[in-house]
Structures are given as C-alpha cells and as structure tokens.
C-alpha cells in the first residue's frame, strides 16, 4: 500500500505516524506491522488522499504473481479451490489476526474475510481492500470468467450504491455479519493449464516452515478471545476448537483470572460498539444479532459495561468515528 501511495506522490509519513507505525519498519520490511496499526494507517491514508474508496482502488490487482511468493503460490495452484486453500492456510504468516475462508456449499462458493479482533472498530478500508483483492485474485486465476454473484460488506454504504455495483458488477449488500463474496461454484474446480504444482508445494512448505519457526505460545485468554472474535460463541465449540473439555477450559481460564462468561460478554460489547459506530442498523437488529431476545436486555447490558445507552453511544460526538 505504501508503494502504491508513493507512486502517486502521496506523502505517507504523516499517516504512518498517526497510525503509530515506524517508517523504518516499513522501508526495511523486516517485521510485522501490528494489525491495528495497519488498519488505522489505511483509514488515515484514505482521509489524507481524499479517496473515499481507497481500499477498492488498491485492491484492483492485475497480476497476483507480482505480489511476491503468496501471489506466485496462488497462480501456480492446480485449481482455484487449491489456490484459495493455500491462501487460507498461509495468510497468517503475512497478516495476523484475520480470517480468509473458502466455503463450498451447494451450487455456491463463498469467500469470507474478517478481522478477528473486534476491538478494531473502524476498518472499512481494510474490508473493502481485502474483498476487492480476493475478487482480483479470482478474476486473474480464471482469466476473467468468474464474477461474484453477490458481495456482502459488514459496514454501511459509503458514497453511492452505484460506486460499489459498478466496481463489483453484481448486487452488493451492506451491514452484513461478515465480508463475503458469493460465486457460482461451477468453475472453481477447473484445472489451471498454467499450474506449477511442484513450485506450489515448495512455496507452501516454505510458508509452513516460517509458521513453525515463528510460532509463539499464546495465553489461553488470548486464544479464546480470538475464537470468540472469529464467530464462535458457545463454550462447547470453543473448547472443541482448543481440543480440551469445557471443564478444563473453565479451570484454565480461572487460573488466568478470567471466566468464559466474562470474555464472551466483553466480545459481545466490542461487537456492539463496532456495529453502533460502523453501521446504520436499528438497535433491535443489533440486539438480535448479538443473541439478545429483547432490545431492552441488550440496552441494560450495554449500559452496565459502558455507562451509556446504545443510542447515546451512537450519537456521542466525542467518538468521532465512522465506518
């Protein structure tokens, strides 16, 4: 992104500083930029350039192979399903805290992108970039033969609906639970005549080694928070994902001074804050999406945590945040 902006004579130093990113770190490309800082930089850059849909513009990628090993891996895969599975498997080596998932269901193929850290409230540019980049990858792999049937975005419409429809050339839906591309499944198993399976396996193994070498031990609280942010909500599902019993999960969380109920409530409230600030959904809809049977129950819980009602929080000018 920095190179894209510099090529257009945009001075990025101020936006990097505002996001708390060291310019030397970007130039040397020797370490990860924390996800929260990266997302904040995207928003700062859009504001500095006045480009409302900066993410969509940068996400228009003509040749994924020009993006380095990950792009080469994608374009070398035997089929589009293989390419997307490689991408899903190894994305965490290059970008922490996000989910990029392919789901094949009936006659559809769905590509989902989501930031797992629900505390990152303002993230529209990142969402639009990631969905646009996924579209570009599929378009390049299929030679332009595959176009999405629908696009779902978790934020409200910014600008005009035509901006999005003209870009994706399909129906676009806003204020959705996640960011998603929906394709006709036909064509996703088409064999790639330019595939280089040996090269793909070699690059995949390189990423796998990098993942093993950089693996760190994460406390259980952090792992549970990531799973809750990724969409799991039931303690049984979280325990199964962590390969432990529910009783073991509760015991180990207690040893870290936490409880599952507390973490689940915190994640709920973070999601509530994001939806209140980033979407125009009615309070009753947000309450139902968060699992509350009545909006009054949600309002009581939200006020207990934040000291404000949902409506007051959404209207508060001090927040100064938009999708």
Q: How are strands sequenced across the largest beta sheet? A: 1-2-5-3-4
What does the overall shape look like?
globular
User: Helix/strand/pairing class, anyone?
Assistant: alpha+beta
Proportion of strand residues:
5-15%
Order of helices and strands: HHHHHHHEEHEHEEHHHHHHHH
Helix content: 40-55%
Number of strands: 5
Question: What is the CA–CA distance across the termini?
Answer: 20 Å
SSE blueprint:
Layout (H helix, E strand, L loop, with lengths): L1 H6 L5 H6 L4 H6 L6 H15 L4 H5 L10 H8 L3 H15 L3 E8 L2 E8 L8 H18 L8 E3 L8 H8 L2 E3 L5 E6 L12 H18 L5 H10 L5 H7 L4 H10 L4 H19 L4 H7 L5 H12 L3 H6 L8
Parallel strand pairs: 3-4
Antiparallel strand pairs: 1-2, 2-5, 3-5
Helix pairs in contact: 6-7, 6-10, 7-10, 11-14, 15-16
């Amino acid at each position: 992104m920095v190179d894209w902006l510099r090529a257009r004579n945009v001075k990025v130093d101020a936006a990097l500083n505002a996001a708390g990113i060291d310019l030397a770190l970007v130039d040397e490309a020797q370490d990860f930029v924390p996800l929260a800082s990266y997302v904040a930089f995207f928003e700062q850059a859009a504001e500095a350039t006045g480009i409302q849909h900066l993410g969509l513009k940068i996400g228009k990628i003509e040749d994924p192979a020009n993006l380095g090993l990950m792009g080469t891996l994608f374009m070398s895969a035997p089929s589009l399903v293989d390419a997307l599975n490689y991408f899903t498997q190894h994305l965490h080596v290059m970008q922490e805290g996000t989910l990029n998932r392919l789901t094949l269901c009936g006659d559809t193929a769905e590509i989902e992108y989501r930031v797992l850290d629900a505390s990152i409230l303002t993230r529209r540019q990142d969402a639009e970039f990631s969905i646009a980049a996924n579209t570009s990858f599929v378009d390049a792999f299929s030679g332009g033969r595959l176009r999405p049937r629908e696009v779902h975005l978790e934020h409200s419409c910014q600008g005009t609906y035509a901006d999005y429809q003209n870009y994706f050339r399909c129906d676009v839906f806003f204020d959705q639970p996640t960011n998603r591309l929906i394709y006709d499944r036909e064509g996703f198993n088409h064999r790639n005549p330019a595939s280089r399976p040996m090269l793909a396996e070699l690059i995949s193994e390189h990423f796998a080694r990098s993942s093993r070498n950089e693996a760190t031990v994460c406390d259980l609280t952090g792992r549970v928070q990531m799973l809750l942010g990724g969409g799991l909500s039931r303690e049984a599902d979280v325990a199964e994902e962590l390969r432990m019993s529910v009783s073991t999960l509760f015991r180990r969380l207690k040893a870290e001074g936490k409880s599952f109920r507390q973490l689940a409530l915190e994640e709920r409230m973070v999601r509530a804050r994001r939806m209140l600030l980033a979407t125009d959904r009615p309070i009753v809809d947000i309450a139902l999406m968060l699992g509350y049977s009545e909006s009054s129950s949600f309002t009581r819980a939200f006020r207990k945590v934040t000291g404000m009602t949902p409506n007051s929080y959404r209207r508060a000018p001090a927040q100064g945040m938009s999708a």
